[in-house]
Write a structure and sequence with these properties.
The chain has one helix and four strands; from the N terminus they run ββββα. The strands form two sheets. A two-stranded antiparallel sheet has the order 1-2.
Amino acid sequence: NNVMQLVSTLYQNTKSRSFQKKNSVIKIQMLAASEDDAADDDGKKKAKKPKKKSKKRDKRLQTVGKVELNLAEYAAPMERSTELRLRLTKCSDRNAYISFTLKSRWLKELQGTGAGDDT
């Protein structure tokens, strides 16, 4: 299991007790095979070519898709876990999805203080 943590400040409307909208985008990326990792038609590794030194970003990292969600929909005053399965957008496979558990809790629970209203 991989763990990703995101700390985000959400503001709560004191009258309605609901949280203000907080959009987040999760981009799914993969490492594409480089020429050095590629095999020929017989399945044998190709001879390595000398690499050029470049200051450009690694072009082997490719975006597979992304998901967008409103974090406020999953926030609660008490700790809360929600199982999500979201369809990827901007993806060549229209059936691709990501599954994960989104856990929400107030930071003041972690810090042991009664001050603040961050989640």
